[in-house]
Amino acid sequence: MVEAALDTILAAMPQAGEIARPERLLAAMRHGVLNGGKRLRPFLVLESAALFGVKQDAALRVAAALECIHCYSLVHDDLPAMDDDDLRRGQPTVHKAFDEATAILAGDSLLTLAFDILASPETELPAQARLDLIQALSRAAGFGGMAGGQALDLAAARDLPDEAGIIRLQAMKTGALIRFACEAGAIAGKASSADRERMAEFGSAIGLAFQLADDLLDLTSDAQTMGKATGKDAQAGKATLASLHGPDWARRQLRGLVLQAEELLSPYGESANLLRAAARFVAERSH
Amino acid sequence: MVEAALDTILAAMPQAGEIARPERLLAAMRHGVLNGGKRLRPFLVLESAALFGVKQDAALRVAAALECIHCYSLVHDDLPAMDDDDLRRGQPTVHKAFDEATAILAGDSLLTLAFDILASPETELPAQARLDLIQALSRAAGFGGMAGGQALDLAAARDLPDEAGIIRLQAMKTGALIRFACEAGAIAGKASSADRERMAEFGSAIGLAFQLADDLLDLTSDAQTMGKATGKDAQAGKATLASLHGPDWARRQLRGLVLQAEELLSPYGESANLLRAAARFVAERSH
Fold first, then answer.
1. What is the 3-state secondary structure (H, E, C) of B179-239?
2. Do B139 and A18 touch (CB under 8 A)?
3. Is the CB of A135 less than 8 angstroms away from the CB of B150?
4. Are the C-beta atoms of B200 and B223 separated by less than 8 Å?
5. Distance CA B165, CA B148 (A)
6. Would the pLDDT of B116 be above 90?
7. Is the Cβ of A120 closer than 8 Å to some Cβ of chain B?
8. Average pLDDT, whole number, for chain A?
9. What is the pLDDT of residue B111?
10. Which of A15, A108, A120 shows the shortest C-beta gap to B144?
11. Does A84 contact chain B (CB < 8 Å)?
């Protein structure tokens, strides 16, 4: 469903207020988005939205907006001036399949499109809920969140951060968007601030688990399983919590985070079973 | 006032929902924004907002959001993979003063911040007006507008467009944002759709004039006067309307566009005098 929503949004036909959608740029955006991603963040949006009575069509558009942000960040992070990756999910990265300028503009365009999707009347949510989603997403994605985390990550290769620095970096770089994914359903459903905070905390717990699992895989897996280069953290001289404390500590931490995440979902009973399964998937994934 | 609003928004203190504002990234964003720009687009927002009874504080935030988008586009357009410019307004471009990765992230962060500003309750406009502004701005800035225009511009160096192609490219690359600047006041002031359309057409006229004046300056001026490299269009093999038809034709066209722009403002009487002056400034500017 997320795939279909993204495919529709990234159609060739310009919308009101647009002049034209240049073919090559659109193809690059589609390459960056419709590439077989896990769709973890959209899944979290849909499942958290279901807990708070949000209609699925509206939740799908919120999920699609968030995935546009996630995919833009991958397109830009893969650029030669950033992480310099040629491979993403087993496919050439956007700047390899197209060119650097097109990859920069495709990322910019996906980022911009996310806010178009949320502001649009087609996202059938109350005006205030749409504004709250836009503000929460922009803060999760911007210099105080994901983009700032990427800047800290690049700096970390030159100037090794301490453990608190690594935790902050990861909370920004990967944590903020996953936290938003889980909070989004509560915002869209105009849930109480207590529910909103609880879902955000759930998001933070699985965000931490996600990153820890990623670092653990970088430490212990191989490129074929991952569909991207591994061992890059060590090569780049980057410290992670998994490399600092070792794989056994990381596996124990992961089990603790899953328990904490499941505990946070206790008020929602069986409706939250898929979110509980997601917490386990995130911690235990092998790619 | 715009400068002060941008300075406040780009303060070091993280806002609610942000984790931290990394120092170097923030410095790069400030370098890209607080650099003595003409502030043409903010000026157009403020003056068009005044025509429709929008409070100045709200109009200033809309103006600041738009300037963040404009400045992000300059930061990214200057990158080595795009126009490869070392100089902007007589200063080193962001990737020269910092580094490429930081420039990419600073641009991304300014783009993201623009939507935070518009969605925020601090922008004291009705919820629907804020949503309409966000959607209009995202469509003006995205792949169907400015970013798409930049993609067409890069392609134009390889594959020379015809006159219709040049007009479309320019309407997207520079026209869309100037059109939005003039329409924004009508959206913020919940003006009639006739007023909104009239102001958008005024914006299109001066957007055309702005680009034509720019191309004319590139054809006839020097780097010292402009504070940036000139003659780049010809060097890059890019055709412009000014280079196709010559400087005399361009000057005649500019006079026609100014008359058309002034005519569009006739319903607003003397309140629109500064906008009329802006139309003349845009057409007659020497840098």
1. HHHHHHHHHHCCCCHHHHHHHHHHHHHHHHHHHHHHHHHHHHCCHHHHCCCCCHHHHCCCC
2. yes
3. no
4. no
5. 13
6. yes
7. yes
8. 94
9. 98
10. A15
11. no
Tell me the mean pLDDT in the region B105-118.
98
Q: Which residues of A268-277 are buried (b: 16+ CB within 10 A; e: fewer)?
A: beeebeebbe
Q: Please report the number of interchain residue pairs, chain A to chain B, with beta-carbon separation below 8 angstroms.
A: 204
- Which of A52-66, B125-139, B219-233, B271-285 comes out lowest in average pLDDT? B219-233
Task: Report residue A175 as tokens.
Answer: 């944590």
Measured between beta carbons, which residues in chain A are less than 8 angstroms from residue B139? 15-18, 116
Secondary-structure class of domain B2-284 per CATH: mainly alpha
Chain B's closest residue to A83, CA to CA, is B101
> Domain ranges in chain B?
2-284
* Position A153 confidence tier, pLDDT thresholds 50, 70, 90: very high
**B112 within 8 A of A111, measured Cβ to Cβ:** yes
Which residue in this structure is represented by tokens 């792949």?
Answer: B143
Distance from CA of B266 to the nearest CA of A (A): 25
Which neighbouring-strand residues pair with A87?
A92
Chain A: residue nearest B20 by CA? A144
Chain A CB contacts of B141 below 8 Å: 112
CB of B10 within 8 Å of a chain A CB? The answer is: no
Pairwise CB contact (< 8 Å): B150 & A105 = yes
pTM of the model: 0.95
Rounded-to-integer distance, Cα A100 and Cα A79, Å: 7
- Which of B224, B127, B28, B122 lies closest to A121 in space, CA to CA? B127
Min distance A136 CA to chain B CA atoms (Å): 7
Rounded Cα–Cα distance for residues A163 and A166 (Å) = 5
C-alpha–C-alpha distance, residues A33 and A107, integer Å: 10
Structure tokens at B198: 């009239």
> Which residues of B are less than 8 Å from A83 in CB distance?
none
Task: List, as one string, the DSSP characters of A93-104.
Answer: -HHHHS-HHHHH
CA distance B255 to chain A (A): 25
Non-local CB neighbours of A179 within 8 Å, separated by 6+ positions: A140, A200, A203, A204, A207
